[in-house]
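Researcher: Quick test of sequence recovery. Tokens follow.
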């Protein structure tokens, strides 16, 4: 029997994506033992009424508390005895065997804390793949910036080998619950709540690696992701660019590194020069 998996979905004005995300989870995959849907201050919440009676589903409403805090809320609500947790964002759609393959990777190696999927781009407007990669794990370039490996490349024969990574993308993060418990800041608090949005996944990954856990990119685990990474950076709202830059500084304060100098320069340029 497939070991139990809990799915945590944090939603903020994501109703249209959530329905497709839930349908994908139920299409061919072993059904999650429980799905925790955390609505983080959405403008319209009528859609939650349809989910309240859904089998093996918990619906939790909060203020707009951010992605990290929302995941902590969902994680704390998971019943005891479920060994694996999938943190999934609503605009990420799994394939029919995604969950089974992710759990298999965790079952085969007790030293792995988290498995990430090969994420390919998906255009929500047309409902078609973009033909481009979204993420195959995260890497840190020479000057200190973390980025999704392969992002924007044509989706071809590259990155087809399983490998351990320095960090993983939080859009699809299938985790061993005991590993999360081992590095929790306090019981039930896995993601650092200081990171409202952006870099909370990297911070968790660095904490796991510091504790001796490994992070696996497994290309046989596949999913689609609708992230709009191909837009010009200036199209991203100013306050979100400032938040992302500030969190890079915060990341290197949590995990000391000379790279903090680059992060400080970037923050100042974004904050005061609006670059």
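Model:
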């Amino acid at each position: 029997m497939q070991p139990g998996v809990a799915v945590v979905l944090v939603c903020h004005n994501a109703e249209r994506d959530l329905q497709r995300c839930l349908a994908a989870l139920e299409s061919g995959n072993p059904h999650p033992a429980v799905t925790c849907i955390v609505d983080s201050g959405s403008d319209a919440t009528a859609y939650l009424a349809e989910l309240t009676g859904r089998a093996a589903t918990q619906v939790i409403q909060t203020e707009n508390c951010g992605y990290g805090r929302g995941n902590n809320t969902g994680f704390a609500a998971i019943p005891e005895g479920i060994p694996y947790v999938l943190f999934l964002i609503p605009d990420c759609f799994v394939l029919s065997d995604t969950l089974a393959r992710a759990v298999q990777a965790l079952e085969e190696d007790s030293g792995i804390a988290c498995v990430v999927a090969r994420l390919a781009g998906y255009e929500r407007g047309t409902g078609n793949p973009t033909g481009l990669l979204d993420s195959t794990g995260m890497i840190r370039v020479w000057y200190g910036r973390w980025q999704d490996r392969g992002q924007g490349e044509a989706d071809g024969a590259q990155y087809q080998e399983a490998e351990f990574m320095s960090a993983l993308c939080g859009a699809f993060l299938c985790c061993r619950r005991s590993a999360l418990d081992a590095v929790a800041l306090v019981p039930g608090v896995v993601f650092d709540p200081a990171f409202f949005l952006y870099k909370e996944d990297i911070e968790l990954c660095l904490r796991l690696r510091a504790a001796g856990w490994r992070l696996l990119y497994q290309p046989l685990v596949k999913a689609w992701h609708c992230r709009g990474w191909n837009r010009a950076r200036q199209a991203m709202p100013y306050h979100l660019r400032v938040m992302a830059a500030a969190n890079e500084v915060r990341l290197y304060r949590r995990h000391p590194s000379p790279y903090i100098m680059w992060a400080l320069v970037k923050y100042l340029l974004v904050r005061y020069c609006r670059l």
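The chain has two domains: 5-230, 233-275.
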